[in-house]
Specification:
With 264 residues, the protein is an alpha/beta fold. The chain folds into two domains: 88 residues, Conserved hypothetical protein from pyrococcus furiosus pfu- 392566-001, ParB domain (Alpha-Beta Complex), CATH 3.90.1530; 155 residues, no CATH class. The chain has a six-stranded mixed β-sheet.
């Protein structure tokens, strides 16, 4: 058995451990971003020159070390034939916060939403009675609307989620109820987003038929129907999306109104 050093984090006074794990004992958390071939090639070349100098950070689950930071280093090291890896083991609560904060810059909204939803589901499984607006949730996920979008992407992988983020930021916050009841609410909200997306597509199709379609027309449609454009305070989700969908339905009947609407 590999030697294991038990330590206490000097700042948070939380338990951490340093050990060496066999490659067969290591897994990568499922929703982490896959390495780009060019990045992996550069990382491998760097290791060949300098060595493997930065430990993986992981949590222990079911007898495995699940990597939450260092999956690309693990992949590069494996390609170089490494059979063992240095690992820093951290508590689960710390792991969730790191997954949220320690993500690569440039993640697109779908990737951010996928990570947020995965973390949310972990919290739901572990603590179903925990309030959705509890600090344990809000400190880890940060933006509630990403969970809604994560569920919406599962319903439609072609969803242009970024198109709806400005509206969601104004009406889709954390709710004061347990995760076990908040999750179905999130699912219902995701369905509303998908309903709105279908309504936007109908307006797009109507504009195509009238010969007025252009590549940025989706954003023009959403702006024309957006009920939160002038809102200074957070809005109610259901009221906002009901108004949004009603306006989109109106525009589908008279699509050229989109062209005369003032956008902001």
């Amino acid at each position: 058995m590999a030697e294991r050093i038990e330590l206490t984090d000097a700042v948070k006074q939380q338990p951490v451990a340093i050990t060496v794990a066999k490659a067969s004992e290591i897994e990568v958390i499922g929703h982490q971003r896959k390495a780009r071939p060019a990045h992996l090639k550069a990382l491998t070349a760097s290791m060949e020159r300098l060595g493997f100098l930065s430990a993986l950070i992981a949590v222990e689950r079911d007898g495995k070390f699940v990597v939450i930071d260092g999956q690309h280093r693990f992949q590069a090291g494996s390609e170089l034939g490494m059979q063992e890896f240095p690992v820093i083991v951290v508590p689960e609560a710390t792991a969730r916060r790191m997954m949220s904060l320690n993500v690569e810059q440039g993640l697109n909204i779908r990737e951010r939403a996928t990570i947020a939803l995965a973390i949310y589901r972990e919290l739901l499984e572990e603590s179903p009675a925990l309030a959705e607006d509890d600090g344990e949730v809000t400190d880890t996920i940060e933006h509630a609307h990403l969970v809604t979008l994560g569920l919406a992407y599962e319903g439609n992988g072609r969803l242009a989620g970024s198109s709806y983020e400005a509206i969601l930021q104004k009406c889709d916050g954390f709710v004061d109820e347990p995760l076990e009841t908040a999750y179905p609410r999130r699912q219902a909200r995701a369905e509303k987003v998908l309903e709105a997306a279908k309504a936007v597509k109908l307006v797009e199709d109507a504009l195509k038929e009238s010969g007025a379609w252009h590549s940025m027309v989706r954003y023009q449609i959403i702006s024309a129907a957006n009920p939160t454009k002038r809102a200074r305070k957070p809005s109610d989700f259901d009221a906002t999306f009901d108004k949004f969908i009603a306006k989109l339905t109106e525009l589908a009947d008279e699509p050229r109104k989109v062209l005369s609407e003032k956008t902001e």
